[in-house]
Amino acid sequence: MNFTLLSRLMKNQATQAFLGLFLVIALLRCLWLWQPQRQVILHQDHLLDAAQERNWKRFDSFIAPNYSDRWGHDKAFLVRESSEVLRQFFGLTIQRQRIECRLNGNTAIVLDRLKLDGKGTALATMATSAVNDLHEPFTFEWKRQSWKPWDWALVSADQPELNLDRAGEY
Q: Fewer Cβ within 10 Å of end Cβ, the chain: N or C?
């Protein structure tokens, strides 16, 4: 397409109206998609999908460099041990029930009740029992990392009934 044709198209009022409508719709879609709560929920779902699919590079991308939890685990430990435990499954489904998503400025708390479903080694069976016997939801804390509306990272996770302090036990 040459400049003359483009110039003629832009003089056409119908074309201008169509382009204007398209830009307005695109802007509204972005504003809707980039709402903080929607972004946190999408990140939460993508994190759990990455774990279920055992896509550790993607899983790692959702976790903040300064991740820490009450058990003293950091990002490297979380990724390494999640990989170790979840590779024990031949097939895995992580079922989730969203309880709540609270926003407070640049911090968000997501409460999800998780259940594991799958077959695997004895360690997979132990992990499934440990998670599925929990009554309280998991708490995931997300923080916005920059001015970008999509830049959220997991900074902490907790589950009050889960005891990971015992060496070698889950």
A: N
How many C-beta neighbours within 10 Å does residue 46 have?
15
Q: Three-state SS for 166?
A: coil
Residue 139, both tokens? 């708490």
Instruction: Give CA–CA dist 84/9, Å, rounded.
Output: 59
Task: Note whether 154 and 141 are within 8 A (CB).
Answer: yes
Quote the pTM value: 0.79
Would you state the pLDDT for residue 164?
78
**For residue 55, is pLDDT > 60?**
yes
- Which residues are registered as beta bridge partners of 141? 109, 156
| Tokens encoding 123 | 């360690």
